[in-house]
Amino acid sequence: MQKSSQRKDETSAAQRPTSAPFQPGSLVVTTLGNPRDKFWGMILALAPEGLSMSGIELASFEDFVVMVKDGESFTPAVVFFPMHRIERVELDLPDGNLPSLSQRFSAKTGLDPAAILGPSQADGSRHPRDASPPTANRADEDSA
User: Fold this and answer.
1) Cα dist from 90 to 78, 111, 127, whole Å
2) Which of 9, 69, 70, 83 has most Cβ atoms within 10 angstroms of its Cβ?
3) Residue 56 C-alpha from the chain's centroid
4) Residue 103, domain extent
């Protein structure tokens, strides 16, 4: 009898998704309607009422990359889109040989987009330097 109950458990586990793809922290491209627009960024919250994101309009992506690469400070938009405006939400994944926007961002800036688009500093500011991986103790940097 244990074998049949084990099979049921294995079957139900195989049918369940291993993880929900549209969780807070996921990088996505959202297509909006009325007016039509696209937005790239990180999901902050997804609820029946709508989608909260931190990011930028897709049309500004290249300008955003240049600004980050040049070390300019910035604050990504934190927005809420009501469900009636959302036409499509897709994970920011590569498509065949085409890199994802996140991969393009990382390749051009050397930074992790999740760190850039994630929660802001206490003063509300963001800076690419804050998103880079620590290479030395901050106290060592301050004394240098």
Assistant:
1) 18, 22, 27
2) 69
3) 11
4) 25-118
* Of the candidate ranges 23-27, 44-48, 70-74, 93-97, the one whose mean pLDDT is the lowest: 70-74
Average pLDDT over residues 46-55: 97
Structure tokens at 15: 């049918």
In this structure, the strands spanning 50-57 and 77-82 are antiparallel
CATH of residue 45's domain is 2.30.30
SS (H, E, C) the chain: CHHHHHHHHHHHHHHCCCCCCCCCCCEEEEEECCCCEEEEEEEEEEECCEEEEEEEEHHHHHHHHHHHHCCCCECCEEEEEEHHHEEEEEECCCECCECCHHHHHHHHHCCCHHHHHCCCCCCCCECHHHHCCCCCCHHHHHHC
Tokens of 133: 């991986």
What is the number of structural domains in the chain? Answer: 1
Report pLDDT for 18. Answer: 53
Q: Is residue 135 part of a domain?
A: no
Closest CA to 60 of 77, 83, 35: 77
